[in-house]
Amino acid sequence: MLKRSIQVSSSAMTYLPAEPDHIHSSANGYKQRKVDSVLKRMNKLGKKADNLAQGIREHVRLGTKMSETVKGKLSLGARIVKVGGVDKIFNNLFSVKEGEKLLKACQCYLSTTAGPIAGLLFISTDKVAFCSETSLKFYSSNGELLRLHYKVLIPVEKIKRVNQSENMKKPSQKYMEITTLDGFDFWFMGFLNYQKAFKYLHQATSHQLSSVEMMYKCRSLAS
Asked: Alpha helices, DSSP H only, in 144-186?
C-alpha cells in the first residue's frame, strides 16, 4: 500500500516491558484495579466493541480467535499501567520538545510492504509518531540478526495532507493516509475509534495544512 519504503529506527530503546511469567494477586490488587479502569475506558464504546473488533480483524488479519485479540489488549493495557501511562511511553520513545503536548495515543496498525504492524500511534502538537507494540526481527548489512522496534516519526511541519478513505465494499474498514512534503505516504488502519483518532490528527495538523494550502495558492498566483 505504501508508495515508498519507511525507514526503520536503529534505536533499541524498550517500548513496553515484557510480561511477567506470573502475576501475584496479593501484590498487584491496586494495579489490577488500574488495569480494569484502563480497559473500561478502552471499551467505552460498549455494544459496538464487537463490531469494531470484527472490522479490525477483517482488514488487518488479526488472530483467528477473538480471544487472542482480547488477550492482546489486556496485555497491552497492563503493560501501559506498569510503565506509568502513555505519556511516559511517548516521552521515553521520542524526543519531546519543550511545551509539546501529547493529544492522543491510540492502538492501530501501520501498513507496510511486509504487512500490517500493530502498535501505538501518538499524536502531539509537534509530531505524529508510531512505534510497534513488540520488537521485530531485522538483519543488518553484515547478516547479524537484530530485534528492534519499528518506529516512524513525522514532524507536523512536514505534513502535506491528511486523507480519509474506506473500503467501498466494507465501509467499516477505514484508513488514514498521511502524505509528507518530501513525498512519503503513510497508511494507518484498524483504529478502535477511527473518528476520534482523526479528530485529534486534524487538530494537530490543521494549522500546518492551512499554511501548505496558502503556499500552493501563492505559487499558483505567481506563475
From this structure: none
